[in-house]
Structure formats: structure tokens, C-alpha cells
Amino acid sequence: MILSHNENPIFEPVLDHVKGTFNNVICSGASTLIIHKDSIVLEQYIGKQSREKEVRAVQADTQFHVASVRKSYIGFAVSYALYYSYINSIDDLVLSYLPELEKNTWKDTTIRHLLTHTHGLKQEGNNVIREFSPGSNWSYKQTGIEALTQIVKRTTDKSVADIIHEYVFTPLGFCESNWHSKKHEKLVDVVLRYEGDEDWSTSESTEGDKMNMYVSTRELAYWGYLHLKKGKLNGKQIVPREIIDMATSLQSPSTLHNDLPQNGFLWFVKDLPALKTEIGHQVPKGSYQILGFTNVTLLVIPEEDIVAVRMFNSFGSPEGFDYLSDVRLFGDTVMECVKNEFKVGL
């Protein structure tokens, strides 16, 4: 995929925001890229791929560890399975697909609950326990993600990675997005904060079920752009529009209190007013966002025809750093730039 470059100084405040975050988290490299009205209007790379001496500078083909941003690809695979009727409904019980799970713990838990972080389950040691009844609350946990990947594999006979490569990466010529079992020179190091932080940079599995996905800044932006354009690029429908629509529209249970974050298929979506949203307050309804523990953010704003990406290689955030305020500010800064562009246009 190739988009025209039309650098616009109106978006410089976004670069300033990213540089500010770069200076406040523990990392060695960062980047940002914005697509607006089918052109790349901001693309900047900062720092190096690790803290080691004489290492590669962050550049266009540098691939960042995207952590939980990988969930947007899992959400796509679930939407694919639903669209092609491998899965009957997201309101199906998880146990109907994975009957080997512990029945008392997983009772009444649906695929919808897994997709929207409302399942109420958490991992304690080797056991999964229940914190609250399905659909009654919201809690961001890794528990349930592996179950989703298993459901995809069992119903479609394809891994998440198989589906993404076949229907997205190969048709679009993506070669800087993948799940890796070994490091190579274009992959950044995840910079750990404290002694005792666990490095989860790679995994033996490359099926899309583990947290070992690396993506370049531009291909993460292109992934968002595919969603912005509802799967249609250069006049060709690459993936059915319905797959994108299901994944990025509000899917949280109606029983959920509207102050809590809202989700599509693992994406955070902006719909009803929510006090605890992870999307900036100035970002309009219909927008959606996915976040990673490495401070990576992908934000899509259909109303303004914008995809905005920021990348870092930090392991979480240092003590005292308000991550959620910072990521909301990223989206709000993008929106301020759009407003300023409109004023200049007048």
C-alpha cells in the first residue's frame, strides 16, 4: 500500500506530544504517523531501537512490539469467523466451543463477554477464577484472549495469523507485521523499567495467540486505514465491509453501566458518554482505538477521515506517570490540530 506524503505543519503539536511522552516514559525509541484525507500528513521517527551502543536508529521499517494492539487482529479473526458462519453468534457460550474448560468458572460466559472485557474472569497462578458475573462489570485482563484464539482455530481450522496473512497481509503486501519467535535487526528491544520486569518480547508460537507481535509504524497506520475505509482500498473490496463494521461498532452488553469503557471486538469505541473511556474527550463518536502496554496507540477517527499512530518501546509506564490521561491527550491533540486546520482553511 502506498499513500502520498503531504506533510502538514498543522499536525506538529502531535509530534510535540509524542516527544513529551518519549521524555517521560522509559524507552529508547518512538515514532508517530498520521493519515488524513488519504495522505500521510505527519511521519517522524525518534531515537534508537534499543539502549545498546551503536544500535540502529528508529526508521520507517523499524518494527515495534505492539503488545495488546495485537488484539485488534484477534478481533478481526473473530469477526471473520462470524461473517463466514464458523461461529454462530457472539452470544454463544464459550463452553459450547471449548467444553474442556472448567464449567463452574466459565458458566454463562459468552464470546461477547470475552470481546468486551466483561467476562469477569482473572488468572491466579494456574487457575482461572471469577471476580464478577458475566456482563455486570468491566475489567481489562488478559484472561479470555487465548480462549478467543482457540475458538477461532477450532472453528475455522486456521490460526489468527493464518487468517490475517491470507486476507490482509498478503493482499496488501505487508512485510513489516508479524508474530516472531526470534529477534532480528529491525525489531526493537522492549526497554524494561525495573529489575524484575518480565521480558515477553518473543514466543515460540507464531500463530497469533501470544504477545509477540511486531509491526512497523506505517503498517500499523495502514491497518487502521484499512478499517477507516471499511476494507475497500483503491476501488477494491479487500475484505467484506461487514467484518470491519462488526469489529469496530459497539458490542458491549446492554447490562453494562455506561460510565465504563465500551468495546467493539476488543477495540475501544466511542459511543455513549463514558466517564472511564480511554479515548480523548474531544474525539467524536464513532471513533475507535486500540492500546498496547508498550504505550503504542492506534486511533481511527472516521468523522475526520484520520488514522493516528504513536509508537514507543517502553515496558508500561514509570511510577507517577498517568498513562490514561496521556493517551487521551494524544487523541485530543489530534482533534485540536484538525480544528486548527479548519480555521486556517477558512
Structure description:
This protein has one domain (4-345): 3-Layer(aba) Sandwich (Beta-lactamase). The chain is of the alpha+beta class and 346 residues long. It has a seven-stranded mixed beta sheet with strand order 1-3-2-14-13-12-11, sandwiched between helices. Helix 1 (12-24) packs antiparallel against helix 9, helix 2 packs parallel to helix 5 (145-156) and helix 2 (71-83) packs across helix 6 (160-172). Strand 13 (297-301) and strand 14 form a beta hairpin. The chain has helices spanning 12-24, 71-83, 103-106, 111-115, 145-156, 160-172, 217-228, 241-248, 323-345, and strands spanning 4-5, 29-36, 39-47, 63-65, 121-124, 127-130, 177-179, 213-216, 232-233, 236-237, 268-269, 288-291, 297-301, 306-312. The two termini are 32 Å apart. The protein has nine helices and 14 strands.
- State the distance separating the first and last CA atoms: 32 Å
Number of strands: 14
Provide the low-confidence segments as ranges: none
Order of helices and strands: EHEEEHHHEEHHEEHEEHEEEEH
Figure out the total of helices.
9
CATH architecture: 3-Layer(aba) Sandwich
Short descriptors:
346 residues, alpha+beta, Beta-lactamase, 7-stranded mixed beta sheet, 3-stranded antiparallel beta sheet, 17% strand
Entry summary:
With 346 residues, the chain is of the alpha+beta class.
What is the strand and helix layout of this fold?
Layout lengths: L3 E2 L6 H13 L4 E8 L2 E9 L15 E3 L5 H13 L19 H4 L4 H5 L5 E4 L2 E4 L14 H12 L3 H13 L4 E3 L33 E4 H12 L3 E2 L2 E2 L3 H8 L19 E2 L18 E4 L5 E5 L4 E7 L10 H23 L1
Parallel strand pairs: 1-3
Antiparallel strand pairs: 2-3, 2-14, 4-8, 5-6, 7-8, 9-10, 11-12, 12-13, 13-14
Helix pairs in contact: 1-9, 2-5, 2-6, 2-8
